[in-house]
Design brief:
The protein is α+β, with helices and mostly antiparallel strands. The protein contains 3 helices and 6 strands. The radius of gyration is 24 Å and the shape is elongated.
Length: 174
Amino acid sequence: MRRRQSGFTLLELVVTMAAVSILAAIALPSFFGETRKAKAISEVQPLFADLSVRLEQYIQERGVYPPTIGEGTLHPAGTPVATQRPINPLPTAWQDIKVRITGNDKVYCGYTWVSGRPGDAVGPEAAARFTFTAPSTDWYYLLAKCDMDGDPSAFSWYFASSLDPTIKRSDEGR
């Protein structure tokens, strides 16, 4: 009488490993993309909140928003990279509105604000990416440019304004 053997054949194991590999190849990029998005928004939200409060305090004290920094002048200076950079020391314009960085003083993104009066022109990123147009009152918007995936040709953009503090996103996770 022969004993029945149990187990898996080599072919069954190879097919199973191939299926698991294919599923991992599909799931991992999605997982890492979501991780990058979470990292970026968890940094952008508190910084935008603090900048908004400081800009609103400034207009309450002086009657106008602080002078614009412009879309091309990010802090920390330079093109964002996929590693954190120190945000301190703060530039003079940031110190003038009394920004205080507490907790982690390293950031992935570069930040700026643009302010204007009725009829002033808005920057190209705000106009093209976020369809922002200058209102008939004094205004500002905040802009963050992030490189979350290490590709220096693709950036994530974040935007909020005095008209709508909701953070808008463009090419998030890049």
